[in-house]
Specification:
Number of strands: 0
Helix content: over 70%
Shape: rod-shaped
Largest sheet: none
Radius of gyration: 33 Å
Distance between the termini: 93 Å
Structural class: mainly alpha
Order of helices and strands: HHHH
Length: about 90
């Protein structure tokens, strides 16, 4: 009975030692793929946020044109009146 226990114990120890050898190639590929997906997701999110922040509303366009001297204050007020009431 002792030899059976020793054999089972030895097999368990060998199995546990083999588990500590590291990751297989397929595991490394899966990890690399996951890292790439996370990186691309971060890049995509940053680009979409940047695009949202650069959307210029009609009022912002008018304000920019006024500041650049393309239109005068009277033209600005006239064009602003044509915009929706929320812009006033």
């Amino acid at each position: 009975m002792d030899s059976t226990m020793n054999s089972t114990t030895e097999k368990a120890i060998i199995c546990m030692c083999e588990m500590g050898k590291g990751l297989s190639a397929s595991n490394w590929i899966a990890i690399a793929a996951l890292v790439l997906v996370v990186i691309f997701a971060i890049i995509w999110l940053r680009r979409s946020r940047r695009m949202q922040s650069t959307v210029e509303t009609p009022l912002m366009l008018l304000q920019r044109r006024l500041a650049a001297g393309e239109i005068n204050l009277a033209q600005f007020d006239q064009l602003k009146a044509h915009l929706s009431p929320s812009a006033t």
